[in-house]
Amino acid sequence: MRQALAFLTPLGGARSPTPNALAWFPEVGLAIGMLLGGIWWGAGKLWSPMLAAAIVVACDLGLTGMLHMDGLLDSADGLFLHGTRSRRLEVMHDSSVGAFATAIGGATLLLRWAALASLAANPWLLAGLWAAARALMAIAAMTLPYARPEGGLATAFLGGFPRRWMIMAAAGAGLAVAIGCSALWRSVEGPIAVVVGLAAGAALLVLARRRLGGFTGDVLGAAGVVTETVALVMAAARW
């Protein structure tokens, strides 16, 4: 658990992750989502919905150390590049930010802010969505090949996965989906938001499999951000 916390947030101390940390990804996501949900609820009591939403977006960047957003930006520059697989991976490794990253990063932050500003504060919704996003990240790391032959940050997750850890990851994923669906249980927004968000994140992983040959640490972060963002937009729809 502490390995997962240290990898997914600036908290937990300096710990090198192992494959066993993947089983705790959904639980860490659940904790982050609940904390952000509490901030959302509290900020809404003091400020307007728009400002409260901006505070939540900023706190999310802080609680994740901007690691996932960085993954989204790097993935945007690499996945949409016209070139060879090795060239795409090289661009993703470069710390500079290109046009694709700038456009997609700006649009993502705007969509997250607008969706939160359109919704009533619901800590359980964020808990479910953030847990579901990290469950998808864990499942991707367990099932997809690693794309970088020279190694990288996510190589720490490669290797055999004990059966008990895979069961824990699957149980965490199921719990995340259940919480997200029940957050808005009186209407269809919750289930649709979770399903569509996960589908969007899975689609990005499929794209990465085709254009990169598998996943990287950046791709995992990007899949999580896409899942959360699309789910929030769907939850804010006028059904």
The tally of helices reads: 10
Assign a percent range to the helix content: over 70%
| Whole-number mean pLDDT | 85
Structural class: mainly alpha
For the record, give the distance between the C-alpha atoms at the N and C termini, rounded to a whole number.
Answer: 38 Å
**Beta-strand percentage?**
under 5%
Tags for this model:
single chain, mainly alpha
Descriptive notes:
This protein has 239 residues and is mainly alpha-helical. It has one domain (2-235). It is 71% helix and 0% strand. The chain is globular and about 50 Å long. The mean pLDDT is 85.
Write the layout of secondary structure elements.
Elements: H1 2-8, H2 25-46, H3 49-63, H4 67-79, H5 85-93, H6 99-118, H7 123-143, H8 163-183, H9 189-211, H10 217-235
Question: What's the short version?
Answer:
The protein has ten helices and no strands. The chain has helices at 2-8, 25-46, 49-63, 67-79, 85-93, 99-118, 123-143, 163-183, 189-211, 217-235.
